[in-house]
């Protein structure tokens, strides 16, 4: 675990805020207050796959299960376990093992031979026990927060295999954005609470009913159209909105013991979730452009808009180092440097499903997306300069760094623009605006780069003489991107600058 500068902590034995006395008294005050409202409860240690309670006894089941492969809980708990075990030395509260038990831990850990199948089976056993002890009309709440679609699919499949109907899902802001886990990470800012009901009859027996695949698919878009505007009105957007839509979508599917196609083949959850992602993506387009007609926008504009919407729009993107030389420079400087933003990243599988839902092949979108391993990155506008301003642009790749460390000189966008335009060495008055791009997104990005390079005359000729500004779709997309690009980024500043020229240009 690397040493990093973090929040200051007071000494536990001191008289300052945060010492043991203050912390214990704060907890004791809560116990005193809440103890007057509720009767005494009972706690008992047991395995989740073998619960001591009898059948149909619990009115509610609330659990925060392991998050797939996100945290090695048992290994991390060893740090505290050695002290807690000494506090309960008789062995009645904690096992007498020297370290925390790990043999049957329900997580994905390839080093221990525990893959997705192990997690799904073990989780289904635990959730099946939870359904056994729950009354037929009980409510269940499963808290889950994982950034990968594979983790979500496995957790949801386990819930359904255990005999639960997923009726709702709500993202609840339970996490600090400044916590260490969230810094330079794709960790969710909220925990999603899956609300469930036992798929049981009144007598407690498991209900078996076969659903028709055509009926399920016809109901899905209607349900998404009901929920997305509601979520948007409550400020739930992006990834949180996607996961919030899972509950209503899965209620359609999980109310049945299985769903079959017309030929009798069962429909796996994974296939249904592909349709859910498609329905969410299409509804997201309607949400982003609201009353505007997005039919005139090409696939690259649709993908860019939904991609930015998914990462949260108003949130700042994860900063990344441009290259190894930047890291070396940072080590030499005493003052910390701001990291260079190099696009907007998503987990590859999530990005693939978003693209697929819009009818786009992610692997064929290299002009706007870069795929590396398990990450997919929406390219920044500056990175698209050469693509947007012609293939005959002069190549100006950086020379290899000398043996002696030397601070790298970052080329300005003005210089990038000079290199990208064929007549790069001409004077500003001789330069011509580039030919309009083939798509509306290309044209918006071209205009953004000209504004960022402070080429006002070129931008005017591009919008007026070339007729780019006469296209209503151009301004419709620019307006949407102005709301979607994160604050503080060059993209947000550039597109707002282009929009500010609209009135002065008579558009």
What's the quick description here?
It contains 17 helices and nine strands. With 507 residues, it is an alpha/beta fold.
Widest sheet: strand order? Answer: 1-2-4-3
Sheet/helix structural class: alpha/beta
Largest sheet: 4 strands, mixed
**Mean pLDDT across all amino acids:** 78
How many beta-strand segments? 9
Strand content: 5-15%
* C-alpha geometry: globular
Question: What separation lies between the terminal Cα atoms?
Answer: 56 Å
- Tell me the Rg in angstroms: 28 Å
- Based on the structure, what is the oligomeric state of the protein chains? single chain
Q: Helix content range of the residues, please?
A: 40-55%
Unreliable spans are 177-189, 314-341, 391-403, 405-414, 420-432
Number of helices: 17
List the secondary-structure elements in sequence, H or E.
HEHHEHEEEHHHEHHHEHEEHHHHHH
Write the layout of secondary structure elements.
Blueprint: H1 20-35, E1 58-63, H2 73-87, H3 116-133, E2 134-144, H4 149-161, E3 164-172, E4 191-198, E5 210-212, H5 213-233, H6 238-244, H7 246-254, E6 258-260, H8 269-289, H9 299-310, H10 324-332, E7 344-347, H11 348-357, E8 369-372, E9 375-378, H12 385-388, H13 413-420, H14 440-452, H15 456-465, H16 472-484, H17 490-504
Parallel strand pairs: 1-2, 5-6
Antiparallel strand pairs: 2-4, 3-4, 7-9, 8-9
